Amino acid sequence: MKSRQRGISLIGMILVALLLAGVLLVGLKMVGPYREYFAIQRIIGLVADEGSNGASESEMRRSFERRADIDSIDVVRSKDLIFSTRSGQTVVEVEYTRKAPLISNISLSFDFKASSRHSRK
To answer: I want to staple 115 with a disulfide (CB 3.0 to 4.6 A). Which of 64, 93, 99, 107 is the partner?
Structure first.
């Protein structure tokens, strides 16, 4: 009786490893932009709270700049922020695009919209 071999071949294992390496590469490249987005979301929530407590727009812009410098955020500047008031609460919003280089001339592009309305509890 002939025994039949089962399992993955060497070529199959190499292909699976390459696929996993590609997924891991893309996943690691996504960490930076999303970490930055969540930091911006947190900062504009704090700035909006300052505005709801009576801070002027220029004070809120300076506060954002200071906090962004601490967190090393350079993709969004205070001039990019949009301020409005809804139901007596200050709302701060910003839209921006972030590109992350992947391989050679291939990049990942992320479009983010952060708002203080979504960061409140």
So the answer is: 93
Q: How far is CA 71 from its chain centroid?
A: 13
The answer to whether 93 and 81 are in contact (CB under 8 A) is yes
pLDDT digits (tens, 9 = 90+) for 67-94: 999 999 999 999 999 999 988 889 999 9
Count of CB atoms within 10 A of residue 39's CB? 18
Order of all β-strands in the sheet with 82-86: 82-86, 89-103, 106-115
Per-position b or e across 72-99, b if 16+ CB within 10 A of its CB: ebebbebeebebeeeeeebbbbbebebe
Could you read off the pLDDT of 12-55 as tens digits, one per residue?
999 999 999 999 999 999 999 999 999 999 999 999 999 989 89
d(CA 108, CA 13): 27
